């Protein structure tokens, strides 16, 4: 049992789970727009997500405590090292235009962790995008939307129609809602100057905002030129299950509530699509 728990913790802490969630949303885009699944792009997104997330999460720790890193963090560093080279391997197989768009989103991820702006913009001494009050959740949603909607379509030479931008905005809102349980969980630990949504309006109103965003997400489906009842049904089911996770999110939630179950919702979404399409 202890070994299983250690493997589960490594699976979550090494960002494998979140990377699979990103890949699931990418695959969903391929299905919704009737494009063949580009496995090279999916693998590239998986390994770049692992590399990017671990860089953001552990850059500060590795930088200042590299001589006394815990064994689990050393293992994650080694794993991330191999993922980085696999990311490069799949990157060279992609079209140049795909890499150029990806590079822009990668730059956002890089500056999310690396200090580069004057101290007056930040809530602490980190001087990175992560430390700008109120920006974190919107920045992450922007990157996820770009990676999981626009990159697959640009890579597949799909025209950027109104439906594409509606889907991109839906994905942006969905990721924001998906992050609300995390922000509620971290309410007790986050610096007050970070200005997270729960810090600014409280937990109850945060849940109301999440509910409204999910309703808007469903409503936007009716504005698509290619409207499908099956797609509306799946979106509604996903909105309901996501609403449940937001509704029952608490500051003292279980260890795996957000990091495993909430973050696993995109995988469930993909499963639904594969069953109904």
TrEMBL record:
Keywords: Membrane, Transmembrane, Transmembrane helix. Signal peptide: none annotated. The chain crosses the membrane at residues 7-28, 40-60, 72-92, 98-117, 137-158, 164-184, 205-223, 229-249, 256-276. This is Prenyltransferase. It comes from Seonamhaeicola sediminis. The lineage of its organism: Bacteria, Pseudomonadati, Bacteroidota, Flavobacteriia, Flavobacteriales.
